[in-house]
Amino acid sequence: MIQNFFENEEQSLRLFPVEQKNIELSFSGERISSDGGLLLLREVNRLIGLIEQISNCVTDNRDQRYIDHTIEELVSQRAYQIAAGYEDCNDSDELRHDQILKTCVGRLPQTGKDLGSQPTMSRLENSISWRDLYNIGKTFVSHFIGSYSSAPEVIILDCDDTNTNTYGNQQLTLFNNYSSFAV
């Protein structure tokens, strides 16, 4: 709980419920996480519904008899992991047990089922088709335009293709599309 030193009273912030249980954000407790800001991000998503809209763009061709995670849960997990700086899919193996992440996805932090593993996330990413990606792009644009009280007359997309060469033979230089290689 936040200690107000001037009034000497404790404060906390109540957030969205998960499975009819209230979530309270405070600064004391036995188990802590450095990713508490995700709870606020989840609250924003609850208001705007962007992750749900993106999830609806992804075609689910999985055999429903063997499903442990909905597409929306997987997309949520991936979005929150990336927002917290865990952009690599391999991080899912460790983070699938994370209480903050589980709460953001809508599962109970201690007793809820674990989230998707790295292989599950890889299957999700590899299953998304070009049509799904196109629909996700349309969703982003529609959501952006919908954030205005009236649609803007013009939207300028500034695509900067500036080439930034790396010095020497740095590791991972091969991921720079503009790198040239001497043969």
Can you put this structure into words, describing what you see?
Residues 1-8 and 178-183 have low confidence and may be disordered. The strands form two sheets. A two-stranded antiparallel ribbon has the order 1-2. Helix 3 (71-83) crosses helix 5 (99-105). The radius of gyration is 20 Å and the shape is globular. The protein has helices at 37-48, 50-55, 71-83, 92-95, 99-105, 118-127, 130-146, and strands at 2-4, 9-11, 13-18, 21-25. The protein is mainly α. The protein has seven helices and four strands; from the N terminus they run ββββααααααα.
Which descriptor suits the 3D outline? globular
Q: How is the largest sheet built, in terms of strand order? A: 1-2
Q: Strand tally, please?
A: 4
First and last CA, distance: 61 Å
Instruction: Tell me the number of helical segments per DSSP (H or I, 4 or more residues long).
Output: 7
Q: Note the beta-strand portion.
A: 5-15%
Kindly state the percentage of residues in helix.
25-40%
Quaternary organisation of the protein chains: single chain
Mean pLDDT: 82
Helix- and strand-based class? mainly alpha
Radius of gyration: 20 Å
Largest sheet: 2 strands, antiparallel
Sketch the topology as an H/E string, one letter per element. Answer: EEEEHHHHHHH
List keywords for this structure.
mainly alpha, 9% strand, disordered N terminus, 4 strands, disordered C terminus, two-stranded antiparallel ribbon, two-stranded antiparallel sheet, globular
Topology:
Elements: E1 2-4, E2 9-11, E3 13-18, E4 21-25, H1 37-48, H2 50-55, H3 71-83, H4 92-95, H5 99-105, H6 118-127, H7 130-146
Antiparallel strand pairs: 1-2, 3-4
Helix pairs in contact: 3-5
